[in-house]
# Entry
Amino acid sequence: MTVLTVEAAHPYQVHIGPGALSAFQEICSGLLASADKIAILADEQVARLHLEYLRSHLAKTGHIYIKQIPAGESAKSIETYMDCQSFLLENEFSRNSLLLAFGGGAAGDLAGFVASTFMRGIPFIQIPTTILAHDSAVGGKTAINHAAGKNMIGTFYQPAAVIYDTHLLKTLPEKEIRSGMAEVIKHAFISNEGWLEELLSVEDIYGLTDEEMAKHLERGIAVKAAIVEEDEFENGVRKFLNFGHTLAHAIEAVLGYGKITHGEAVAIGMAYALELSGHQKLAPYLKWCQSNGYPLQTLVDLPFEQLENYMKKDKKTSGGLLKFVMLKEIGLPFVDTVDHNKAQAAYDVLCSKIGEMQL
# Structure
């Protein structure tokens, strides 16, 4: 098992590896001992597959309450958020209670927001179950969605620990592997050209060995942790982690949350950011997306005007001007303002390039 430390205002450790949950009670002994009650907020699909596995590693822990939440992005609604708060109140949870987030990125975002606001904050532990969550479980961003935009209501609230048992990844469907690997390759784009080339050479991400996957996830978490340490509250370089996300969030909003996975939308968003940047890696990247089944054609069917309305509500924007994370070179991201004409032109060019591909 690999252990990485995130040196945030409240430092914590990320434990990564197959069977990492077997060390759960040892790793979190202090938190477990001090908690009067423990709540597990579990994605309903993950609960069906893995809840007993988690409970087997909590056999010595009493006072456990389980709340199942909707799978995927549908969990990040004000209704589910309030339902979770009611669950904690009805079961007489207190400031001395502990919350466990068990699921993918959406479950972690919701559970973190619930923990950060219940009685003004109780500790929580991230137990991610997807590749995508190697990004979202680290860094302390919590949120729910609003009809006006994704992640518009949330807090910065670091977990007390992250237990990333990669054994849980074995049951992921292909679309979730695609979703997660988009965030992995994002970390490579903003950090390391050699790593990026290694990933772009993978024509079948579904055939990666456990060892290969673990190596990529550890690299991604290390990139995320280093950026969070430098800029915990997204006042500077942390914005670079949003590479591809401005358009991605707009795609998710226009289609309806959950109609496309977050990572698939990010993959398309990165292609757009590369087009805006005039970057030479766009062609090999589109080929990689094509080889691995990313739904690039989705973009061709969406009117730019609809997407632009949502992009103007992105948290990086000001004065209604569009801002994007772009790349000068691999590992050298920057944020720049883009006017309507340039944004529209780049969109049209990218759609044309995708249309010419044999998808």
About this structure: Residues 210-230 form the longest helix (21 residues). The chain has a mean pLDDT of 95.
